[in-house]
Amino acid sequence: MKISHQTFRLPVLSLAIGLLVACSGPQVRYGDAKQVETVNADYGSTDLQMIAEAMTRSLLQSKAISGSKDAPIVTLADVKNKTSEYIDTRVITDKIRTQLLKSGQVRFAVSISEMQNQTEELKRQNQSGLYKNSTISKTGNMQGAQYRIEGSIASIVKTNKDVKDVYYVFNLNLINNETGLIEWADEKEIRKTATR
């Protein structure tokens, strides 16, 4: 039985095309992280940046922070999500804290959610017997925060067959831990509309 080159050529060509298509995958490119993101009306990266920048600027101008001789110690509670969509509020919290720290006008004590790691580290250093005494971080020396920052994000969503309108409101408060007084508060509103 004689096999021609034509018989082999077609399956080999089909296999090569199939491999090229399978290996090509999605096209990925980098974009500007500050570029306005308008994929849909849901909470997105532009909203995060607008909220963090507005809140940081406002808080740094507050009397409690700008009028302080020394950079006050602050702790930051996770932002509460009161919307109907999933929002990783820890990202909001982290972005605000990073911008405040970069200003040099505020120092941060560990938050409630970070306290477990802090106490475990102190226990490890003080109780394991593995560390040289002169290098151990001693217990009882943590500094309490003068203020705490608490906030929430909420939304109102209205839809019909052609339009989805989402209104977000983000609130942030600076609370004096000793007196319980709210020393500063601000909000950022965002409205997004998507049409079909």
Automatic annotation (TrEMBL):
Lineage here is: Bacteria, Pseudomonadati, Pseudomonadota, Betaproteobacteria, Burkholderiales
- What protein name applies here? Penicillin-binding protein activator LpoB
Query: Per its UniProt record, what InterPro entries does this chain match?
Result: LpoB
Q: Which GO terms describe its molecular function?
A: enzyme regulator activity
Q: Which organism is it from?
A: Polynucleobacter asymbioticus
Q: Which GO terms describe its cellular component?
A: periplasmic side of cell outer membrane
Q: Name one GO biological process term.
A: peptidoglycan biosynthetic process
Annotated coiled-coil positions are: none
A Pfam family the protein falls into:
LpoB
